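Quick one:
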Amino acid sequence: MSKLDEPFERADLVNKPGILGARWWHEGLAEAPKDVSRRRAIAIALGAAGVAGLGVMFAAAADGCSGDDHEVQRKRALDLQRDFGWSFGAAAESVTFNGESTAPFDRAALARMASDLRPGDEALRVYYAPALFEAPSAQPRLVAEEDRTPITPLRDVLRPIFTPAMDRAYRSGKALASLFLGAAADSVRRDILVVVDLDGPEAVAFAAGAAAAFDPVFVFDNWPHPRGVVKSHLTLAAAAYYQPLFARPSERRRAPMIVLDRQRLSDYTDDATQFDNRYVAKMPSAAALSELGVRHVLYVAPTASDTLESADLNEDFVSYQGRMIDVKMLAATVFAPDLAIPKPAGDTGDWPAHYYGGAAASHGWFWVDYPWEPPPPPRPPPVEPAVQRPGKRYVPALRATPFSSATLGAPRPMPPGFGTVPVLVALGTGVVLGAALGRSGSWNRASGGYGG
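Output:
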């Protein structure tokens, strides 16, 4: 006979602060008849508390359950973190920040991050995925029964970062913006969508540099985790660094810019050491882009050797092309400093400026490579860049990926287990008992036998 079917007897009363539901749990059990089974007593307690409909709850009476009373299930990582805290299953661990900034930092501003970094154009906000920016201020809704280690709030852990790679990306974004601003500094063409697909911190920095001409739409749909496959705490730290810039209202109507973290599809190999916080990019449909008046898409990849779009973007780009929206690729590294220009006296940090092709003389050649009704050519004419630029010849082509659907435009399938983590679930109640994510420490259920 399972222990859940044995007669229930209350051995002790637990009523401690920080153990969620301890009071209602034991009050509910106290009302159960003495000869009722453990399984039935749990159901009575849940019913007395009015929470029988909750899909996720940690049961204080789970202690002593046998291996037959629970099973391992996979649940969406972000849902678990929202319920039990950003470091679910690894509360005693934290994250590290390389390139920590020494600039003044207003920690209270983190509470405004999701609003400060949302698109200025209301028509673009439907495509905004602010999950990452909501993480610092989020509070756990539930408390784990099997691991009651207090979770340090993410806002107390977060540190802004600024790295040389971010600096280069910022200057590259600023160079791209200068091409679109041109002489008409009070207006920007809005028929071009830029999709920035760089590693998270550099993607944020590129968007910050380009913000004069482009309205960033961040699509960061996960939370950081101490063992996260996606190191999104670094993306969040970069966003904290640039938050004051993004918070400034723009009086100019700007072109749309989708901003992605290229690490969102990072390789995942082992539940024992990794937390699968991966996710896919959620892009506007081809029809939606047409309604916005977009006729051209410029996809910014890291280097010239990146000749294909990320796997989760393939069908989106093919559908854009099918809607007569021209899609081209641009390597972020095609923007480089012109070191022939001397550093001016009293430089305020703007030197060295970056240019298309790495030279001021070649900057205007962008409009030769991407002839999307360019502005009047400058005089003298630009010089062709000496660097390789294969992106100008890019045309999206349908290919098999882990996210390919049976029919173009159909709902996108997910690889098995993608973006999920294993948890222990009580068979009798459906209650989540704890993390079953590894082979040691707080990631292993000591009594359940799921460690390797």
